[in-house]
Amino acid sequence: MICAADIFTRISKFLPGTQAVALTKLDEQPDLPSLHYRYSISKPFFPSIWDNFKLISFYTLVSLRLITQQHYTIVHHLFPFRIGRTFNPLFLIPGLKIKKIIGPVMVSVDYDNKDLKKNSFFATNENPVFNLLINFFDPLFALLSKATLLRGDHVIALNEVAKQELIKFGVPSPRITVIPIGIDTQKFSFTPYNKKNNHIFHLLTLGYLTKRKGTELLLKSLVRIIEKYPKVHLTIIGDGPQKSELEDLACQLDIDSHVTFAGFVKYADLEKYYQRSHVLVSMSRAESWGQVYLDAMACGLAIITSKNDGSNEIIKDGQFGYLVEQEDVAGLTGKVNYLISHPKLVDRFGKAARREIKRKYDWDRIVISQYLGLYER
Questions:
Q1: Does 330 share its domain with 198?
Q2: Prediction pTM value
Q3: Residue span of the structural domain in which 18 resides
């Protein structure tokens, strides 16, 4: 997944003659082209509370010194920024004459922990002391988060869903710009259908293996698919609390020879999985964004996914693949079978997906120019 430091690195390359600074943890080592302030993390009894106070203090003091002594003119709070949870102390200091930008902001999905309030300041923990602290500080963080957003000169929303949430939270629409996360189209290169191993039809899915991802629906669909097309293989990338349960289910359904559980794969190593696959499949029950869709589209995969906030905005039904209703195993099976029997359509969807990425999501050609436009306003 693209991290904030990666966004900073890409933006900085396009700021000739401008000095930029990133504030990151010691274990983050992006190839930053300019100043790079880092802070260390210790492990006290309450690491989350202490570490976050330490980060806020470090960030505020170093930023103020840079602004006052070296005359920086823009503060860009890169994500993560959770609406109603995250705040920036610099934005709350009265009289600080500096341009303040926030984002990209995304809407958090908490499907697997509906009854547990999750806060970006405190780590989620079963310890009741943590939960009491979260409940106590929640109203304060909501106020600080709203004040931060309202005092920002501009807010970047990751997609239209996030923009509408920001408007509901009180941010004026003219101060919000939708800028998606981009794709490195050189790293995630296009592989045409006729260059793949077409003796086996490869399905691919990625994600943290929880109930929200709906991976068990893919396994149930695969049972029906291989009845008609035995030469189909599903690769599942990701770890998570459901992994052993899903492995057991694959054995119970007698499809374990058609499934590979690849476990966690570094983002830098994903390209080879995309390039040998034909279709990305997903039955996620909730998504606020769909980075895996973009990565797969860049490599020329057709997409079959359930309808959710992330897929609805990225995937055009019938252009790059298909959208199916949530929980619709029969619908998923039918779409996969149709693509297996129509390889030219798989090829056409993949080429159209690649064109869409280059038109709308290319980091260096499209996305960065939108960031630079905000800086220059």
A1: yes
A2: 0.82
A3: 4-182+363-376
Neighbours of 209 (CB within 10 A): 24
Please give the share of the chain, as a percent, with pLDDT higher than 90. 47
- The tokens describing 146, both together, are 């709203």
Quick one: 217 and 308 in the same domain?
yes
The answer to whether residues 157 and 8 belong to one domain is yes
Strands, E assignment, 141-254: 154-157, 176-178, 201-206, 232-237
Instruction: Please check whether residue 188 lies inside any domain of the structure.
Output: no
Give the pLDDT confidence of 195-230 residue by residue, as tens digits.
Answer: 888 789 999 999 999 999 999 999 999 999 999 999
Contact criterion met (CB below 8 Å) for 310 and 304: no
Query: Residue 227: which residues within 8 A CB-CB, separation 6 or more?
Result: none
State whether 178 and 213 are in the same domain.
no
Cα angle for residues 181, 186, 188 (degrees, 5° grid): 65
Distance CA(166)–CA(142), nearest Å, equals 13
Could you tell me the two tokens for 233? 């293989």
- Assigned token pair, 348: 């056409």
Most confident range, picked from 80-84, 88-92, 348-352? 348-352
Residue 114 included in any domain: yes
| 75, two tokens | 């503060």
Q: Which residue has the higher pLDDT, 95 or 132?
A: 95
Four-point Cα dihedral 85, 90, 95, 97, nearest 10: -120
Rounded-to-integer distance, Cα 271 and Cα 267, Å: 8
Number of domains in the chain: 2
Please give the C-alpha separations between residue 233 and each of 151, 219, 332, in angstroms, as whole numbers: 51, 11, 15
| pLDDT tens sequence across 9-58 | 777 777 655 555 555 544 444 443 334 444 343 444 344 556 666 667 77
Using an 8 Å Cβ cutoff, are 248 and 315 in contact? no
Verify that 166 and 201 share a domain, yes or no. no
The answer on pLDDT for 160 being more than 50 is yes
The owner of tokens 């994500």 is 79
Q: What count of other Cβ atoms lies within 10 Å of the Cβ of residue 325? A: 11
- Do 177 and 202 lie in a common domain? no
Q: What is residue 317's DSSP assignment?
A: B
Return the bridge partners of 35, or none: 21
Q: What share of the chain is helix, strand, coil (3-state, %, to 5)?
A: 45, 15, 35
